[in-house]
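Protocol step 4 of 6: structure prediction from sequence.
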Amino acid sequence: MRAALPLLAAAAAALAAAPAGAAAVEAAVRATDDLERTRTITIHYRAHNGSRRAAHVLLPAWYRPGANPPIPLIISPHGRGLTGRQNVALWGNLPAQGLFAVVNPDGHGRRLPLHSWGYAGQVDDLARMPEILARKLPWLKVDRSRVYAFGGSMGGQEVLLLAARYPSLLAGVAAFDSVADFALQYRRFPRLVCGVRCFERYGEPLGRHLQRLARAEIGGTPARAAGAYRARSPLAYARKLAFSCVPIQLWWSIADRIVVDQETQSRRLAEAIRVLNPEAQVYRFAGFWIHTAEMHHRAHLPRALWTFGLLAPSLDPRPPRLYEVVPPPPTRDCERPD
């Protein structure tokens, strides 16, 4: 936040120099408010299939050409059926409080635009976000040693796959209520509750609708396209994650009614990584909330940011009623895979 101090100084100087000047006072207030606010810049990029997609970049409001120190970047893919614009709302003013940028890409799957479900081309596009930003916003200086990925639900599935495939890119990953075994999730889609409005919206039960979308996106059922489902399942990359040297936060809820029975999803992945590498830096957070409600600036997202040092130690937001397991410090240096 030291780079923002000149704004405070300018605000104070304006107030002191022209106490009766309404314009000066208004400018000073705006400059001070900029320290607590964010702004969104929308850019466009070509996805893996050549389609033009939007990405929404959330920045501290004061950050601009001429006031642009290197800052951390968070890559944040959206959840199933949502957009990058909707994902922006989860962050509130946290980028201004912690001094970092968040890129929220729309993404694209193999066939579907909003149901990418960890497709390899989509993960490749996520890995390209720092380069895309460097071309589109050359004045945005990203600290390449502090690139993170945060995502909930399908977004959590994708950031875990990103860590498995591009470990050298990331300083940390936080996955909230994510799918770890996509074939298992496909089989459990019929357990999703679908009321009258839901049925009217889709014209069929929600679970059947999602299974149909998954078959279209992936190319068949788990029985006919088993390899494709494994390729989109972080659990299949447990060994790579265990030895990736990427700190991982796994958040899950025992009350989740979308990714049902998280004991067999996020917790199962956490246990698999721990067995493979007891020194893997896996943070486990469990609680009782509706699906991905914890990934919100008014819920547990500040805690996840604080865990990775993206919020100041003085802002430690220790929430109540949260089961937390912090990994012990490693006994030796971790060597990242090539």
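Step 5 (inspection) to follow. The CA atoms of residues 27 and 77 lie 36 Å apart.
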